[in-house]
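> Could you send the histidine kinase prediction when you get a chance?

Sure thing. Input:
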Amino acid sequence: MTSAPPPHLTDALRRRGYLLTSWPWRAVAYLVTTVPIAGVLSIGLLVLGAPLLAAVNAARQHGRPIPLALVLFLAVGSLITLASAPLVSVAVTAIERWRLRLVDARPLPVQRWQGVAGRYTTATAWREVAHTFWLGSVVPLGYGMFALLLLLDLTLVASPWLAGDADQVIVVWTTVDTPRQAVPYAILGVLLVPVFWYGLGVIAAVQAAVARWLLGRPTDGAALREVTRSRTRLANAYEAERRRIERDVHDGAQPRLTSLTLQLGLARLDVPSDSPAARPLAIAHEQAKELMTTLRQIVHGIRPQSLTDLGLAGAVREQADEATIPVTVHADIGRSLPDVIEMTAYFVVSECLGNVARHARATRAEVRLTQAGDQLVVEVSDDGVGGADPARGTGLTGLADRVAAANGRLLLASPPGGPTLVRVELPCRT
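Output:
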């Protein structure tokens, strides 16, 4: 069975045979296409940086004051650079998003144009500006250092030929007089070629990781907080609606259906068994009783009665008693919990014990309920075969969605061969 191709350069660098794949060439293409962009940006920064460095150097060495004209030039130039950077970064970012696919196939979040004002007021725009300055300042320095090392290695490789044309050739830390003396250095240079070839991939991977970090981060923390609040409001609204439906069914439909079932039962007693209406009446009576059972199951699914009568710990112990394998329950719950948290924890245990019975081939299981501060921790473990994978079914995925709706998180440890541990952390602030 062949492994899937790596989705990005960082993953490819970890695999054997990287140097024999197309990834080094893709890294080179990414770096080569960076050169003109970084070159143009660095020239723009040098227009300000070079005079500043020269003035500071003159002031340190000769004690000369910085001329007023230079100060004004640097101040005006800095303001123009900062004012134009959010607009220049639009083109740079667009090109970078296209180039990034050379070394990283994972899509970046799509950023919509928010107008000129948005280029100066949003965090996304200023992250793009930071990426532009990164390309114009840090990247050229890194490329220059690597180019210097590469030039030294090429000198090592070519040293036997260079030594034949001159009396002495400086090779890194020493000098050689003859081609024969230079051969060991040439061999070392050849051996370093794969290292430099791999190093090109590392540089491209670092550059791509910085680009993804700056350009692929969530748009705004405020927007994310609002999404979280919205999800919490939806979960609370769902819980309130669920309780309303439960009351309506329990107090409205269920008593009327019970009365209908009794009336049909009394009617069966008054109708002779040989009457033509006896059989349809008996069928109607049986259907009414079946509907009563179905309605009780629906009400039980909305909120289990055991959860209302016994609380979370008692309801979980009741589930454990009904399991097909021995289940040990440890509960340390100090105070009452919000309804949403109780329901979530109950169904977590129910789904996990169901998975144990269906898939784990376990001989025993354990459930732990621990309330520590403002957090309820639910842990379900078993000694089964392990290998649980959310990608192979919707049970764990649905469970994770239910936990996320309550602002919690689900952690899964299930190596092949077992054991399996599901840990759910739920906020239980009342």
